[in-house]
Amino acid sequence: MITIPLRILLVEDNEADVMITRRCIKKLVQAPVIEVVEDLSSARHQLVNFVPDLVISDYNLPTCTGLDVLELVKKKDPALPLIFLTGTVHDEELAADTILAGASGYILKKHMNNLEEKLKPLLKKVVFNMVSRDEVRERLRKNKIAINQIYDYLDSLKADNQEQKQNLGKIKETIRIFKEEQDGDDTKA
């Protein structure tokens, strides 16, 4: 069982599929928080206000397609995983296209009786990636703290001559550039 609490946005219009999916997730995840929406507007609202760790979406919705949901998710957070749970993906080409478009996986609704078995490896992958990103963010945070401390120390040094002042200026500029690069990398993590 996955012990990390997951926040899951379920984009699904079929109540029976919602119930089956909720039950399956609760068997796999110790403390899931699941929000259910039926349309793109509600999904947009939940992406901003609920901020899920994972989106599970039907492919064929009354007001949009799964690719519309995927596009919205990738626009809000390119690293946010999305799994399609669908009865629509009949041919392998469309299934491959969803993965190439950025979906983390897909499960056919004809496998709803085996949903737990199909969903488990995908959820484990999501959790693994979450933990990895958290570790990277923590390392970046510690690096930024160290850089800030070095920068503060350099500010406190009193340069006696022009050469020392120039060297301190060069060091500060190098650190400033490094900080900007770190900030850019942090937005990608």
Automatic annotation (TrEMBL):
Q: What residues bear 4-aspartylphosphate in this entry?
A: D58
Any Pfam family hit? Response_reg
The record's listing under InterPro entries reads:
2C-system_Tx_regulators (IPR051271), CheY-like_superfamily (IPR011006), Sig_transdc_resp-reg_receiver (IPR001789)
SUPFAM superfamilies, per the entry? CheY-like
**Statement: the UniProt record of this protein carries the keyword Coiled coil:** yes
Sorted alphabetically, the keyword list is:
Coiled coil, Phosphoprotein
Q: Which domain of life is it from?
A: Bacteria
* Record-linked PROSITE patterns: RESPONSE_REGULATORY
- The answer to whether UniProt assigns keyword Coiled coil to this entry is yes
Which residues lie in coiled coils?
Answer: 154-181
Task: State what protein this is by name.
Answer: Response regulator
Q: Which organism is it from?
A: Salinimicrobium oceani
